[in-house]
Design goal:
The chain is mostly helical. It contains 29 helices and nine strands. Helix content is 70%, strand content 5%. The strands form three sheets. Strands 3, 4, 5, 8 and 9 form a five-stranded mixed β-sheet that branches. The protein has a two-stranded antiparallel ribbon with strand order 1-2. Strands 6-7 form a two-stranded antiparallel ribbon.
Length: 787
């Protein structure tokens, strides 16, 4: 618009002047055009700036980054280009004001210098990146794309010179592909699920395609095809590219020939039997599907090669293609055989060796049907599916019979496990406040053991009378006898299992009992024994001998549990007959597991350990008893009646100090006895000494009271004597003298009183001392009458 304004003005002026010489339309030029010309110049400069930015932006984009791989350098250069316009963007004045024109010219010239510098940097980047190309094809595409993109003339000229660099890069790529081929041609990297030959051919073809793809683009550039380097690397028959392609083609032909040679054995593999076996013994047979892996691979190879269009139409390939077309049928047979053999192996595999021996004849009948797959049927046979159905029916019949056997065996196993896991010694109630005596303890454990054993015995008897006979009927097809010859080892197997179960049950019971008899400070003892004094001896209730008997019954009864499980007759599951005890109507099983179990070293060791623990506890009880007898009978003679009688006779001759000494010893004895613990622990037994302590205290108190009584009697007599003497003196002093003789008598009394005052005082002190002793020792006495 700014440029058209001037033209429009002069065109209008000319039209007016052309109408007549007198018509003049003329104005001063400077006011009209000076400002618009200035604005036009500034806009032209800004257009140059925009073009420069666009050219750089077009070139320094994602395409160049993808080819060079040097994103960092490109981003830095692009940032430098953007920074060159910062001064223009932030100009501090009105660029259309002519008075700032010189300043603007300086800024614009600085921009052009930056643009030139950036162009040189871009050319250097082009030189550098094209020497380090990542992809010849990508570089070629970049050049082709930039052909239609406007950029800086210098950059565009430099880019046109880079086709030679692309050929150099492609030569490197051909060398790399050839090195990759040489490295992998013996054992090529094959894609997952691809067969060997087809995979190798596909790999070689992928290398060929990688080499060929850039060449197809290069042919579009005539200059490249005509160049000497282009002929040497790509376009001549002797070029590296052509030689590499020929080498790949030869490699593919060789791999195809190797596969073709392997197809000659196709019919041989199809004539192989459908099954083969691996035997470890007569019954342990592993059936394997005999479909050749080579045949599977050939079929897959043929399908892949056919898809790749490489199969040659001849008799060999027609045969293998025909086999490949039937792959679905073969796979169906293989799947059905797999399913059938899986059912067979599942049916046989779950059987224990003893069950396999039990079902030996049935297993052989089943194997006779499946063995037809080893000889009568090959992969060309038409009756493979009928054979599979016949095998499945035989397997189903065997499975039904097996399940009946396993069902009964499982019931037997449950009973045996119940025996094995039975708890003969019940859990003890340690929280109970009332402690058992030995009678209650034994009753507590024995009732539980008896109930458990009775229940187990009743279930145990059903093993031979019920379940084993059902198994005999199923396996023999005849009525059960309980002594079938073909089940002899099966009887022995269960007898051994029952023996082991009983052993574990009894051993667990003994271990639990041993644990109960072992010292444990974190729990109270099992039961208590009450000690009682029966002068001069201390006895326990119950007595130690009786307690030992009861405790012995605990471990004896656990071991004798085995006596309640009768054994079977030889080679049968029939229980031995009972016998009658002599002179009684009681019957018992004379042949049980007891003798064999109790001879086991582990059992005998446990019994001995328990015996030692019991003996240790009873020894401590005996020692406790002796301590009471020695200390309180032999030392203090508390129950020595003769000694008591002698003391009563001689007590009158003893001084108060000696009597008090004897009394203090008995009082201290009472105090010490009261401080003694009323019970002691003897490992697993509480020894209750409260009755003995009470008896000691009572007897010591009796001695104390006896001495006190004697002392009171002596003190009373002495008090009476003193009182009588005082009363006599008082009576004599109260008499009035009537004559000289009576006066003399009174004076004599006074003289006697004075002379006996000291002795009287001593007698009174002695009496007071005796009563003090009686008071200090709390001897109950009657208050004497003091005259």
């Amino acid at each position: 618009c700014l440029e058209k304004w001037s033209k429009c003005y002069f065109d209008t002026r000319k039209e007016i002047e052309d109408e007549g010489p007198d018509n003049r339309w003329e104005f001063e030029s400077k006011p009209l055009f000076e400002k618009t010309k200035h604005m036009f110049q500034i806009c032209s400069d800004l257009e140059v700036v925009a073009d420069v930015l666009r050219d750089f932006d077009n070139f320094l984009g994602p395409g160049l980054k993808a080819v060079t791989g040097d994103s960092e350098s490109i981003d830095q250069l692009a940032e430098q280009v953007r920074s060159s316009v910062v001064d223009i963007e932030k100009v501090p004045f009105d660029v259309f004001d002519k008075k700032h024109y010189e300043t603007w010219c300086g800024i614009f010239n600085s921009f052009k210098e930056s643009a030139a510098e950036n162009e040189n940097l871009t050319k250097s980047l082009i030189e550098k990146t094209f020497k380090e190309l990542r992809s010849a094809e990508g570089a070629f595409d970049l050049l082709r794309n930039f052909k239609n993109i406007k950029t800086r003339p210098g950059i565009e000229a430099r880019m046109k010179d880079k086709y030679e660099d692309i050929i150099v890069q492609y030569e490197k790529e051909i060398d790399n592909l050839h090195a990759l081929f040489e490295k992998g041609k013996v054992s090529p990297p094959i894609a997952k699920n691809k067969p060997k030959a087809a995979g190798a051919i596909a790999w070689a073809k992928s290398l060929y395609n990688r080499a060929k793809k850039p060449v197809l683009k290069f042919r579009q550039k005539e200059d490249m095809e005509k160049s000497e380097l282009g002929q040497q690397v790509i376009f001549s028959k002797a070029s590296k590219y052509v030689k590499f392609c020929d080498e790949l083609a030869e490699y593919r032909r060789e791999k195809y020939k190797e596969w073709e040679n392997e197809t000659e054995n196709t019919m041989k593999w199809l004539r192989e039997p459908v099954l083969k076996t691996r035997r470890t013994n007569t019954l342990d047979v592993e059936y394997i599907i005999n479909f050749s892996d080579h045949l599977k691979i050939l079929i897959r190879e043929a399908k892949y090669l056919d898809k790749m269009g490489l199969l040659v139409s001849d008799q060999k390939t027609k045969t293998i293609l025909n086999v490949a077309l039937q792959e679905e049928k073969y796979q169906k047979h293989v799947d059905n055989l797999n399913l059938m053999l899986k059912n067979y192996h599942n049916s046989i595999g779950v059987l224990k060796p003893v069950e396999k021996e039990l079902l030996e004849n049935k297993i052989k009948d089943l194997q006779a049907v499946i063995n037809l797959g080893e000889g009568s049927y090959n992969w060309n046979s038409l009756g493979i599916q009928d054979f599979i159905e016949k095998c499945n029916k035989a397997i189903d019949r065997f499975s039904d019979l097996k399940m009946k056997v396993i069902k009964n065996a499982r019931m037997i196993d449950e009973i045996v496990n119940k025996v094995e896991n039975a708890v003969l010694v019940r859990e003890f109630d340690w929280e109970s406040k009332d402690q058992f005596d030995v009678y209650q303890l034994c009753d507590y454990f024995e009732k539980h053991r008896t109930a458990v054993v009775d229940r187990l015995v009743s279930q145990y008897l059903t093993i031979g009378s019920d379940y084993l006979q059902k198994i005999e009927e199923v396996t023999s097809g005849k009525a059960a006898t309980g002594c079938s010859r073909h089940m002899v080892n099966y009887y022995k197997y269960w007898e051994r299992r029952i023996f082991n179960a009983l052993t574990k049950m009894i051993m667990r019971g003994l271990i639990t009992l041993k644990g109960l008899f072992t010292k444990n400070d974190k729990r109270p003892p099992l039961f208590k024994m009450k000690a009682e004094y029966n002068p001069p001896k201390v006895n326990y209730v119950p007595m130690i001998v009786e307690t030992e008997t009861y405790l012995k019954d605990l471990d004896t009864n656990i071991c004798e549990t085995a006596k309640q499980f009768p054994r079977w007759k030889n080679e049968s599951c029939q229980i031995v007959e009972t016998r009658r005890k002599p002179n009684t109507d009681e019957e018992f099983y004379f042949h049980t597991y007891f003798d064999d179990i109790t001879k086991l070293p582990a059992i005998t060791t446990l019994v001995v350990d328990i015996l030692q623990l019991k003996k240790k506890a009873m020894d401590r009880a005996e020692q406790n008893k002796k301590v009471w007898q020695v200390d309180y009978n032999n030392t203090y003679h508390l129950w020595d009646q003769k000694g008591k009688n002698v003391l009563e006779k001689v007590v009158n001759t003893l001084s108060t100090d000696k009597i008090e000494f004897r009394m203090s010893s008995y009082k201290k004895l009472i105090q010490d006895a009261r401080e003694l613990p009323k019970s002691r622990h003897a490992i697993f037994v509480t020894l209750d000494n409260s009755a003995v302590i009470a008896a000691v205290i009572h007897e010591a108190q009796e001695w104390l009271n006896s001495l006190g009584g004697s002392l009171f009697k002596i003190a009373s007599e002495e008090l009476t004597e003193v009182n009588d003497q005082i009363e006599k003196f008082r009576k004599d002093l109260n008499e009035s003298p009537s004559n000289l003789n009576s006066l003399k008598s009174l004076l004599n009394v006074i003289t006697e009183i004075k002379s006996s005052s000291m002795m009287m005082e001593l007698s009174i002190n002695e009496v007071e001392e005796k009563f003090r002793v009686l008071r200090d020792y709390e001897i109950k006495i009657e208050q004497p009458e003091i005259l």
